[in-house]
Amino acid sequence: MAARQVRDRRFYLAMAIASLLLVFLGFSRTFYLKSYFGTPPLAPLIVVHGIVFTAWMFFFVAQTFFIASGRVQIHRTLGYAGGVLAALMVILGVMAAIHAEKFGHGQGTRDPQTVFLVALGDILTFAIFVGAGFVWRRNREAHQRLMLLATVAGLLSAAIPRLPVIGVIGGASPGMVIVGMSFLLAGPVYDLISRRRIHPAYIWGCLFALATLPPLRIAIAATPAWHHIANWLANL
Q: pTM, whole model, 2 decimals?
């Protein structure tokens, strides 16, 4: 049991670090290293959103590191701060999505209304998994899986299309699917290898994530009804 816990901690730390690196690579040209690439300036709201987004990623890595190093009490103490940070993530995420819709910011072949719905879907996914992780915070097995899902299912889809090696913004490509599915299914695969069964948190969480993938959101976003709703929300 002790050996398995050590392996678990190393796995979740590795996933947190990999997620952080993916976010850095995805947003390097438009945020982290934008001065080197000469990309257009960002609105103050987007800058603040990016800072809070980055803070969450570092917080996620730090929390998994504290668990991996046996500093469980520090992890628990910082948990409430994480709740506040997650709430800021949701609030600023919605505000940033509305801002992009209001000022007509699309992505490649996607119109602003589609980008708006995809972003709202990511925010909702993140909020659901973080909220569930907080509710089940005393259940270690469920908590660690839900928090990983919050990041890989709720946040990484914003960074993956912007990866330099993907090279497709606003469209779909095999590379996007491979990277996204690799991160989403890494946890369930690890469960199968280490336990020969998949934890229910992964089963239900992955089913939810797969059922609400961007292709479904894009199909909904193409309807006149959603365009009407999106324009109404942007003009509130």
A: 0.88
